[in-house]
Amino acid sequence: MGALRPRAAVVVTGSELLTGAISDRNGPWLARELAALGFEVAHVQLVGDRPDDLARALERADDDGCELVVTSGGLGPTADDLTGEVVARFAGVPLDLDEAMYARIAQILAGFAARTGFGGPALDAANRKQAMVPRGAVALDPVGTAPGLVVPRPGGPLVVVLPGPPRELQGMWPAALASAPVRDLLARVPAAGARSLRYFGLPESEIAATLRAIEAECDLSDVEITTCLRRSELEVDLRPQPGAEAVAEAVHAELAARHARHLVSADGTSTDELLARALRERGWTVATGESCTGGMLAARLVDLAGSSDYVAGGVVAYSNQAKTDLLGVPAEMIATHGAVSPEVARALADGARERFGADVGVGITGVAGPGGGTEAKPVGYVCFCVTTADGQVIARDPRLPGGRTDIRERSTDVGMHLLLRAARGA
Amino acid sequence: MGALRPRAAVVVTGSELLTGAISDRNGPWLARELAALGFEVAHVQLVGDRPDDLARALERADDDGCELVVTSGGLGPTADDLTGEVVARFAGVPLDLDEAMYARIAQILAGFAARTGFGGPALDAANRKQAMVPRGAVALDPVGTAPGLVVPRPGGPLVVVLPGPPRELQGMWPAALASAPVRDLLARVPAAGARSLRYFGLPESEIAATLRAIEAECDLSDVEITTCLRRSELEVDLRPQPGAEAVAEAVHAELAARHARHLVSADGTSTDELLARALRERGWTVATGESCTGGMLAARLVDLAGSSDYVAGGVVAYSNQAKTDLLGVPAEMIATHGAVSPEVARALADGARERFGADVGVGITGVAGPGGGTEAKPVGYVCFCVTTADGQVIARDPRLPGGRTDIRERSTDVGMHLLLRAARGA
């Protein structure tokens, strides 16, 4: 295994990543892109803005037989932004000022200065620094202000240098792929042939047992199989080596069949996308009545572009007063059953549906903690209800594990899955 | 630089991280903890579940002079979970079945089987695998089902092996720090002495210019200074080498003074925490009227434990009908000025404040895109208004950069900052 696919590596720079000030978003994004192109991703390295550490990370990718290294970050205006210099040294070439790029950046910065009132010598120094290009490299047009680079190392990997801000990095990626050196490399990479399945409500050990059973009858050594719990969903990914595509397909079919009851998607479509599709097919609108999730479910429904077609709106009824005033939950019901109860969850769903004139409503009320738990209703106890204008009622009241954030995130997931169940009418 | 602080490294395992299926949360968390303890974090390596790659990552941390390596993941029940084995080999010791740990895991799994109805041979195999401990290692009690490990390599780094689920990893961390081998190591680590500043509305190039001016008068080579844009805020971190604490303090004071107008916090307190504090001090409650952010601002306000003290609730008024029906925005106002207008933002703020009986209301309406933009109101145009019962009105209508997600996230940030300004009464 591992010999047949060309290897690629990701190097993310930024001392702020090593102090935990921010979480890296580029590593996962680039890894997914590279895997989808058919590379085996050897590793993602996060290093500080120390030139030696970056140089060592590049050498390691070379040592590990990587044919492509993608870096992110270190193209900014400050003194700790050193990627261009280090990559030039790695490739054994000097840096030259690219006059055309210098002019282009100056133009971008002039617009910035006019908009913000900031400008002057600080900006010009930034401009000059960002227009330095290793000799023989392909420069990629800026998406923000920093140009990207495609730099070949003779006898070593091709290095694609991208900016750190995720929007700029993602915006520049198509141009990097279209550059001649990357195109030449991609021509030699076999298609990924990856498959995935996602389940809701199935423990990882069940998949492990099924895989052991399949392995007893079938050689799986040329398919890399990973299972991973992503919040409430269990994801199984199958990545065949070239030639093992049929094995991956058979395992995929077997896993889909054996655990059909818990299967959410067998083709990689997200739950959000599946729900949007189901709501559109029905011509339904949705409204939310949220307590402990505090708007997270509504925000998630609005994440997708075009969601105004099926999202009517929602109420965050965090106080009891708001539950009664805005969603018509009877005060006596709260007094009798408590604000966290299946009765109130249903009243929130009905209230949201009625107040917004929606076809389906979802109510969520729970104890997110850390305080407020009782023996009968401990931290993590969350009541859900989905009701529809055509009379469906789907109710759950699980005890969810974890801390406040986990409980709220999982509650949002459960809300999405129950809405999906209602919209699928199953 | 770099010689005075002991180095530490983080190795995060999981092939799912290299396919981009999930984003790693443990690397940033561990890096922050290690930096706060006074280590210099050399790097974070994300590697797949291939034993050779994990072994190489450990060797690299050793080569780079790291005295501590913390790993996450690979302690699960499936065949691709190999961390215990690889770390034992790295330390040069065999694995033994820890009978006490075996019994403890069996007990935990029995509870799990009773709750979920899943159990049997699949679970027992998982149990046995998870109770294997490298000889001479300290085993750490499970937080989920997998025990952690503290494994010394003779003449090399100490390896702390933690589980992958963030809640389990974070829950086990105090026990790891309290273990004798880690305690002995920490006794030799000098205090971090780190300082940070956060700004809102200040470009990075201005900080770069200020730092150049300071550097002309003062040797900064023993202070690691990083600047990083985190969504709408610019964060500056100062990390002195031992002995350079006074220099870091002077730079910190200078940066705070020179850019006082844009300063949010000079002591690391988050904006969320500052807002919570300001609302509590005033005894105010807050209500939200959100359109394009779709509940993200309400959800963020509810993030902090105890937020029921000051969050009344909110309405996600995504459709025009909902704006009028639930928050009393006059239909004529929407017809005259458009749903995205400063007028409607104010009506949303007032409506939310009045409907929930709150002291401060915030209204947000904007064009999040990708569709719906016009020449006068392009994608990214967002109207904000904060109004208070005592007559303050703070309004903004910026054009925010980026795609749909960026615009909605930044809108949430701007909403938080405007609320903070109102609550501070400045």
TrEMBL record, chains A, B:
Belongs to the CinA family. It comes from the Bacteria. PANTHER family: NICOTINAMIDE-NUCLEOTIDE AMIDOHYDROLASE PNCC, NMN AMIDOHYDROLASE-LIKE PROTEIN YFAY. It comes from Pseudonocardia hierapolitana. It holds the Pfam family CinA. This is CinA-like protein. Residues 9-184 form the MoaB/Mog domain. InterPro entries: CinA, CinA-like_C, CinA_C, Competence-induced_CinA, MoaB/Mog-like_dom_sf, MoaB/Mog_dom. HAMAP family: CinA_B (MF_00226_B).
